[in-house]
Sequence to fold (573 residues):
Amino acid sequence: MLTLKILVGCASDKGIKPRNEDFVGVHFPDGSELTLKGAVAAIADGMSSSEAGQHASQCCVVSFLADYYSTPDSWSVKHAAQKILSATNSWLYSQGQARYQSTKGMVSTLSLIVFKATIAHLFHIGDSRIYRLRAGNLEQLTRDHRVWVSSDKSYLNRAMGIDPRLEVDYQAIPLELGDVFLMTTDGVHDFIDEKTMKKLLLSDHHLNVIAQDFIRTASENKSDDNLTCQILCVMELPEVKEDAIIRPQKALPFPPPLSVGEKLDGYQIIAELHASRRTQIYQVIDTDSGETVVLKTPSILYDDDTNYIENFIHEEWAGKRLNHANILNVLTPNRYRTYLYYVTEFLDGQTLREWIEANPKPDIKIVVKIIEQLVKGLQAFHRMEMLHQDLKPENVLIDVTGVVKIIDFGSVKIAGIAEISPLHSHEEENVLGTLNYTAPEYHSGQRGTVKSDLFSLGVMAYELLNGTLPFGDTLPDKPTAAHFAKLIYVPSSQHNEMIPNWMDGALRKATAINPTLRYDTLSEFLYDFTHPNSAFLKAEKFVPLIERNATLFWKVVSLVLLISNLVLLYRSL
Fold:
């Protein structure tokens, strides 16, 4: 099986300076960590006029190499790196102020490459550089953040620790076999022309020898600074047809049909809670602990369907990385698994769909409490860079104590996994989610965002309060943009006169067909849903008849047309 393999060469020297304030590092993890997080190479150059440039450059590299692998597997490279770099920058800036009373106390350049799957993610600030040699062509991939005042005087205008607000350049570049990446500090690249760089990189020497040749050449050319060079050559790229994280479990056989009283891997079947063509869900007892839990098994009908198997394993993977009171807890069994299934906590309660049917006219305060809990649960998804993508009443449980839990992860989009190899590569043909609850943008092939989950939440909130959907349920199975363009939001006042105008205003904005018109965050929606917004109060002073009462509107239009036709007929006689 092919995997990511990169050869590395490195050299660093203080040059004519009394000490070396450059710092360089690389980390290549093994196994799943290499798949999920990738490999990292970094180079930094402490600013010479900085009080603690050496400490700053070391901190930039060491902290990133350590902290990056501590971020959630579900995070994308960009999100994880930006979080770490922002925190490191804040620390450098505050330490510079506290220890040295200067904005130049702890300042360094920083250039990073994260090699993940078949993509190189580049992050850069300052005037250290990253080059790429591909097919004999040498290209500088970063730009220097340096301002030249005159031919011999310049200063860094962007660097780590120089300003509390951080602005880092980012780009993602597809990798090719044989790509060579060159990382240098200015003590090297300012004293070697690109023709010579290319000649050195194309030599047959070991990469460490080539790196030393860069240092020697720059020194011979009268370099007056520290000299650091790191070279990385892509020797092998992983397969991206399927995600390596699911391969071990794909080999497990599907469980046979189970009956009450039977045992599977130490779980005794108590009752079948749900059965469909796609899955079976059982209430079971863990015979080791005596705990009542839930066993979810795949349907034997799909034992040769690769996409189905990937999605089933994907559910468990996502669920295990979510730990929140308003999300179903997926358990990690402490015993060997001989079949494909996963285990969750047992919840004694009912689906939100069942609750809606049992409470056609609920108390608004109770609905607010349900929505508050759903918001908290969704926020936990979003903090992990996950989108639920299939929020609907059937995928929410309310237990006997009133705790609300999101229970389904089959359509969850995980940023960190999607950038390796999307498990849902067939999404474009088959829109995930459920008609009438799925955000309109999914049907036009657009990528989902936090606003897409918000749309689904808004539809559910509307249904909880009004017992129906905000646009009716007349959409065809495969709606187009034209279908959505014809949809008209029906004010809550037509269904439930107890709903305040400002609350309906929040629902209207949350379920806007155009995602740019929705709230930017769930917290904004929740605040307007629970607090009167004067903008909505003003807007509701006049509501067009077609929105207040569409039936009456069309009756009036029909009557006007009838009268007009009668007048025309009369005049023609």
